[in-house]
Amino acid sequence: EYFRRLIAQRRSDPRDDLLSALVAVEEQGDTLTEAELLSTLILLLIAGHETTVNLIGNGVLALLRNRAQFEKLAADPTLAKSATEEVLRYDAPVQMTMRVAHDELRFGDFAMGKGEAAILLVAAANRDPAMFDDPETFDITRDDSRHLAFSSGIHFCLGASLARLEGQVALATLARRLPTMELAVDRPEYKENIVLRGLAALPVTF
After folding, report:
1. Cα–Cα dist 179/171, whole Å
2. Which CATH superfamily does the domain covering 49-94+123-205 fall into?
3. Torsion over CA of 60, 62, 68 and 70, rounded to 10 degrees?
4. Strand spans (E) along 18-176
5. What's the rounded Cα separation, in Å, for the pair 72 and 171?
6. By three-state DSSP, how is residue 121 classified?
7. Strand runs (DSSP E) across the chain, as ranges?
8. Is the pLDDT of residue 199 over 80?
9. Which of 74, 145, 179, 198 could form a disulfide with 54 if both were Cys (CB 3.0 to 4.6 A apart)?
10. Using an 8 Å Cβ cutoff, are 61 and 206 in contact?
11. pLDDT by residue (tens digit) across 27-79?
12. CA angle centred on 171, ends 166 and 176, rounded to 5°
């Protein structure tokens, strides 16, 4: 009902925003029905929530397990950007994704037929030694953001800029305000999910 009211408002009083643009598409008779419009708005509202929570949780865990890196960030908040990129590479919130071949294709000795699906391991790509120096080391000063945490091309994550900003603010603020923070457990529990990697809880002391 909230979105229905917003849609009605934008129809009568369009603005220079995404919702007005989406409403205009529907009114121009394109393929976006009202039901699809509502689904899109709900997706935009909630889609990035869990992955961003996982980004922050995975980042705090990596920093606390690598104390020197945590202390670097606490001492120099300008490292927040590279720290967030390193978390996205080292322990991405999305570990795998799927693609379907529109045509027959070949990568080296690997062939796919039209309509076949492939599971792509983002986590493996992000630690590929052919792409990253010392890939198993968590280093927030790493000057390399070629990871695939947000996918690429036409599938690149719509919310990447917001997720990056939220990660930078959260990690820098926690490191600055809670410099004595430590893990309260040796092995935190993860949620059971083959695609998303996120903690069920992260007990800490400070």
Report:
1. 11
2. Cytochrome P450 (1.10.630.10)
3. -20
4. 96-100, 105-107, 110-112, 117-121
5. 12
6. strand
7. 96-100, 105-107, 110-112, 117-121, 182-183, 204-205
8. yes
9. 198
10. no
11. 666 667 788 888 888 877 777 789 999 999 999 999 999 999 999 999 999 99
12. 130
Q: Is the pLDDT of residue 26 over 60?
A: no
Tokens for 125? 């790509």
Q: Is the dihedral of CA 102, 41, 191, 202 positive or negative?
A: positive
Average confidence score pLDDT of the chain: 92
Packed helices 34-65 and 80-90: angle between N→C axes, nearest 10 degrees: 100
Where are the chain's structural domains?
Answer: 49-94+123-205
| Structural contact between residues 161 and 134, judged by C-beta atoms closer than 8 angstroms | no
CB–CB of 162/168 below 8 Å?
no
- pTM of this structure: 0.80
pLDDT, tens digit, 9 for 90 and up, residues 117-171:
999 999 999 999 999 999 999 999 998 889 999 999 988 998 899 999 999 999 9
What phi and psi values does residue 117 have, to the nearest 5 degrees? -105, 150
- What type of residue is 151? S
Alpha-carbon distance of 61 to 53, in angstroms, equals: 12
38: tokens are 């509502």
